[in-house]
Amino acid sequence: MLNKEQIKEIIPQREPFLMIDEIEEYIPGESATAYKNVSEEEYYFKGHFPGNPIMPGVLIVESLAQTGAVAILSMEENKGRNALFGGIDKLRFKRQVVPGDRLKLEVKIIKRKGPIGIGQALATVDGKIAVKGELTFAIV
Q: How many Cα neighbours within 13 Å face the side chain of 12?
């Protein structure tokens, strides 16, 4: 288990844009499982949407990307580097994520060639799919 401080040793994101709270497990270069505890205090709920707070889908995708970045950037040869979006494919939003939810984020690296790769991403709440798809990344 990694806490936020340990996560910051692997990926460059910082508050308020660090979108994962803990890593349950990871295998460098292969996979990572993280959690985001969605609090009503999140900055984006002030405007998305007043009286009906819903976590923006793009921020769920960013949470998944940061989870995948832990898997890739924890590899010895990638330490100190960054992982950028190269593309998003087959992405589907299946349920809303709201304050009080504990978002489970799972990314498996399914393809790598040089600095480019693809992660199969799945976000769930209480075992129900919130988001699934594929994220393409580039190591820079």
A: 9
Cis upstream peptide for 16 (omega within 30°):
yes
Single pTM value for the model: 0.97
Q: How far is CA 104 from CA 56, 69, 139, in A?
A: 16, 15, 24
Task: Write down the domain spans for the chain.
Answer: 4-139
- The domain 4-139 having CATH identifier 3.10.129.10: the answer here is yes
Q: What is the pLDDT of residues 50-64, one digit of tens each?
A: 999 999 999 999 999
pLDDT at 99: 98
Q: Tell me the catalytic residues.
A: 48
| Three-state secondary structure call for residue 85 | strand
